[in-house]
Specification:
single chain; 424 residues; Rossmann fold; OB fold (Dihydrolipoamide Acetyltransferase, E2P); disordered N terminus; binds adenosine-5'-triphosphate; AAA+_ATPase; ABC_transporter-like_ATP-bd
């Protein structure tokens, strides 16, 4: 029901745009104060209430008032976005998610949902739902009761609960198993019950903490696409915590990388892969890991980065003399065999079905991983020549990215203009 002044209207609104048209064209009441069920506000506010963005403003966390687990966390997660938080174990991913959920307090900063601060609101008033790593199912309740538990606690009428639960179970393809207890289900099915519970709650924001980590690799792959598909279909704003870079890469619209208490980078999977902000982000994404090699630039205004007499890189920028790091993904090397002039030796070769990982040792003990799909017959200690394909990153001594180059598919040379165009 909507009331404007003394008049009341019953309308059913599926899309914010409809309410907008309704008021601008029929009632010309765009700036009037109106009531929508129990919610009062201007039309614009009500339209926005359909949107569920989350803003983290200078969020910081300490558990003991001494050590900061997280500092300066700033980002805005848009309505309907699949947002992954990734980082190594212990970097504070779960802590951040629990603060958003309201399960633990924020030490400083502000958290806004739909442009309103929620730091003083308990979890149940934040219009969100959470899926935990261990699914948090009640062992003594069957699937149907587990999915409807939250709705019952909110005292929703029995018939409405039944309808919602049935719909959620249908969406995750569990209708046939609704009378089973959690112990009678496989890991993947339990995970689907947890998903169904989140769907049934009808919250527009869903938080997931490593929801697939208890599943085997094959099932994980299947569930990844199922969760992504559901998120899209329901238009959920989804925050997904994982330490698995592949999960983040394949599922998320955007990724936040956390390390050393801070945000290292926020961006789309492709952006993060192609333009890592530092060597940590560069090595975190991609398997096998990006090679990070110590390099030296001998003279200021020079473009040569020397790793070894037989392995040098031509920087696209003039560099001051000094030490740098060069980052090269394993697929971005060319390998030549049957050579004599080189300091690189094969240490071992791993065959992965359709490609080989070749571990190569340089004189100065650095080890380089090279991936090739060409059929290759190499022996340990065989000499090889490795040459970069002109697709590499330069990091300064602290690991910050100075430049990257896009790969060139021609003869390996890039013109100055092309180079400038692709350097950030
Ligand atoms: N209740 C607590 N009291 C004190 N320290 C805590 C508490 N919970 C977590 N920590 C610490 O905070 C840091 C971040 O923990 P958190 O669980 O958020 O990391 P994470 O990135 O989710 O790790 P993982 O990937 O291993 O789950 C860790 O050093 C952890 O020991």
């Amino acid at each position: 029901m909507i009331s404007i002044g003394k008049e009341s209207f019953f309308i059913s609104i599926k899309k914010p745009t409809l309410i907008n048209q309704f008021f601008t064209h029929s009632l010309h009441a765009k700036h009037n104060n109106i009531t929508f069920n129990t919610y009062t506000g201007t039309v614009t506010e009500i339209i926005r209430s359909e949107h569920m963005s989350i803003e983290l403003k200078n969020i910081a966390k300490t558990y003991d008032n001494k050590n900061w687990i997280l500092k300066d966390i700033n980002t805005k997660i848009e309505t309907g976005e699949f947002f992954a938080i990734v980082g190594p174990s212990g970097c504070g991913k779960s802590t951040l998610l629990r603060m958003i959920a309201g399960l633990i307090p924020i030490s400083s900063g502000d958290l806004q949902i739909d442009n309103r601060s929620v730091i003083n609101l308990p979890p149940r008033e934040r219009n969100l739902t959470m899926v935990f790593q261990d699914y948090a199912l009640f062992p003594f309740l069957d699937v149907e009761a587990n999915v409807g538990f939250g709705l019952k606690a909110r005292k929703m009428p029995e018939l409405k609960i039944k309808k919602r639960v049935a719909h959620a179970l249908e969406l995750v393809d569990l209708t046939a198993l609704k009378t089973r207890k959690p112990r009678e289900l496989s890991g993947g099915q339990r995970q689907r019950v947890a998903l169904a519970r989140a769907i049934a709650s009808d919250a527009k924001i869903c938080l997931m903490d490593e929801p697939l980590s208890n599943l085997d690799a094959q099932l994980r792959g299947k569930m990844r696409s199922e969760i992504r598909e559901l998120q899209q279909r329901l238009g959920l704003t989804l925050i997904y915590v994982t330490h698995d870079q592949i999960e983040a890469m394949t599922m998320a619209d955007r990724i936040m990388v956390l390390n050393n208490q801070q945000v290292q980078q926020v961006g789309s999977p492709l952006d993060i892969y192609q333009h890592p902000s530092n060597s940590f982000v560069g090595t975190f994404f991609g398997t096998p890991q990006m090679n990070i090699l110590k390099a030296h630039c001998p003279h200021t205004h020079n473009q040569q980065l020397i790793i070894d007499p037989f392995l040098t890189f031509q920087s696209p920028l003039d560099l001051p003399a000094g030490d740098y790091f060069v980052g090269v993904r394993p697929v971005d090397f060319d390998l030549t065999t049957h050579v004599t002039r080189t300091n690189a030796f094969v240490r071992s070769v791993e065959y992965l079905g359709n490609e080989f990982i070749i571990y190569i040792k340089l004189d100065d003990s650095a080890e380089i991983r090279v991936v090739t799909s060409e059929k290759i017959d190499l022996n340990s200690n065989e000499r090889v020549l490795i040459r970069p394909k002109n697709k590499f990153f330069i990091f300064d001594h602290s690991g910050k990215t100075i430049s990257f180059m896009k790969g060139v598919q021609n003869n390996g040379r890039t013109s100055k203009q092309e180079t400038q165009a692709i350097i950030q």
